[in-house]
Amino acid sequence: MTTTKPPATPQRTSSGDGASAALHIGTSDPRALILGNLRQSGIYIALVVIVALFAVLTDGVSLSPGNITNIVLQYSYILVLAIGMVIVIIGGHIDLSVGSVVALTGAVSAVLVIRQGYPWWVGILAALAVGILVGAWHGFWVAYAGIPAFIVTLAGMLLFRGLTLRVLDNISLSPFPAEYQRVAAGFLNGLIGGQGYDAFTLLIGAVAVAGYAVSVFRTRLARIRYQQPVESFPLFVTRVLLVGAVIMYFAWQLAHARGLPIVLIVLAVLVLVYGLVTRRTVFGRRVYAIGGNLSAATLSGVKVRTVNFWMFVNMGFLAAVAGVIYSSRSNGAQPAAGNMFELDAIAAAFIGGAAVTGGVGTVVGAMVGGLIMAVMSNGMQLMGVDQSMQSVVKGLVLLVAVAFDVYNKRRAGSAR
């Protein structure tokens, strides 16, 4: 009588962290692993190169404590918009109205707080409510009426810009009370002392580094558990140390300026929350499924209309948050506020690795893409580059990012 051996099962290594065995699970060539992650790793390298380039071109001014603080304050609202925009793009849509929504929500807040004398927090709540209503308006037409998001939000861009003019009566309103201004211009400092620097800012930076290290280590263990390819352990440690060094340098510079900006705390909370939403929740997985393959998502029982509706509600909410931050930063509301903000948010998402056809992208990637745009804009301003030339450079960077995405897709298709 003959016996048959059971099929061999993958064996995990007992030494180290299992990286050597895991590296070859799913791929026999480490080079393929590196190339496969180029979309994610490339933008981090690009950010470092751009920061170093402008540090040299501006004789270190771009890395001064005051300038780093200004970058956070000046571009925080674009980063907030990029969080919502990347989710919409992952779902296979686009939103061209966010700049107008920023203007409208800021205008509503200004009318209530400045003109009618309501408390500052009432203006913030009203702005958020208007943003949610705008998102629901867009979501209805896209999800339930079946009109393409490009058309719906293009109409919204015109509609809500017109409403902004009506709300403000074509005039600017200012100033906001000091409490409202602290949203985008306030700092937390002096809470635990420090000689010539703010120790609280350094503490928050250290907590951020520890949180990042724990998060990526858990992700690595999960990939090993499911026998997915991972980088070698020395390379992993090097990456964590480099990211930690960058975070602590950033915190050190802030600590020597004015301390920890309140708006940075708001942005960090949003990044953490939406990072978890996109990676760990049913809603996030459904957004990726819809953007990746709409037909398959529908056949799998995903409620496409409901997910699409809430995607745009969320975008409206984040546009309102950006509207509050921008009006607080500018200490008023203007009819032309938010002009072209949608293009900056879209550019941040695409530069950060989002795919033109949907289904691909991350919140962290959008943040890095937004930082690339912010560093370039700030660096060119410090160098005195003409505004027209700044637009040319931004346009070329966006074109290269999208071309890289298309190239990757064609290469993947030919590999099959």
UniProtKB/TrEMBL annotation:
<keyword id="KW-0812">Transmembrane</keyword>
<feature type="transmembrane region" description="Helical">
    <location>
        <begin position="71"/>
        <end position="90"/>
    </location>
</feature>
<feature type="transmembrane region" description="Helical">
    <location>
        <begin position="121"/>
        <end position="141"/>
    </location>
</feature>
<feature type="transmembrane region" description="Helical">
    <location>
        <begin position="258"/>
        <end position="277"/>
    </location>
</feature>
<keyword id="KW-0997">Cell inner membrane</keyword>
<feature type="transmembrane region" description="Helical">
    <location>
        <begin position="346"/>
        <end position="376"/>
    </location>
</feature>
<dbReference type="Pfam" id="PF02653">
    <property type="entry name" value="BPD_transp_2"/>
</dbReference>
<feature type="transmembrane region" description="Helical">
    <location>
        <begin position="147"/>
        <end position="168"/>
    </location>
</feature>
<feature type="compositionally biased region" description="Polar residues">
    <location>
        <begin position="1"/>
        <end position="17"/>
    </location>
</feature>
<feature type="transmembrane region" description="Helical">
    <location>
        <begin position="96"/>
        <end position="114"/>
    </location>
</feature>
<keyword id="KW-1133">Transmembrane helix</keyword>
<feature type="region of interest" description="Disordered">
    <location>
        <begin position="1"/>
        <end position="20"/>
    </location>
</feature>
<dbReference type="GO" id="GO:0005886">
    <property type="term" value="C:plasma membrane"/>
</dbReference>
<feature type="transmembrane region" description="Helical">
    <location>
        <begin position="233"/>
        <end position="252"/>
    </location>
</feature>
<feature type="transmembrane region" description="Helical">
    <location>
        <begin position="307"/>
        <end position="326"/>
    </location>
</feature>
<protein>
    <recommendedName>
        <fullName>Xylose transport system permease protein XylH</fullName>
    </recommendedName>
</protein>
<keyword id="KW-0472">Membrane</keyword>
<dbReference type="InterPro" id="IPR001851">
    <property type="entry name" value="ABC_transp_permease"/>
</dbReference>
<keyword id="KW-0813">Transport</keyword>
<feature type="transmembrane region" description="Helical">
    <location>
        <begin position="203"/>
        <end position="221"/>
    </location>
</feature>
<dbReference type="GO" id="GO:0022857">
    <property type="term" value="F:transmembrane transporter activity"/>
</dbReference>
<comment type="function">
    <text>Part of the binding-protein-dependent transport system for D-xylose. Probably responsible for the translocation of the substrate across the membrane.</text>
</comment>
<keyword id="KW-0762">Sugar transport</keyword>
<keyword id="KW-1003">Cell membrane</keyword>
<feature type="transmembrane region" description="Helical">
    <location>
        <begin position="43"/>
        <end position="64"/>
    </location>
</feature>
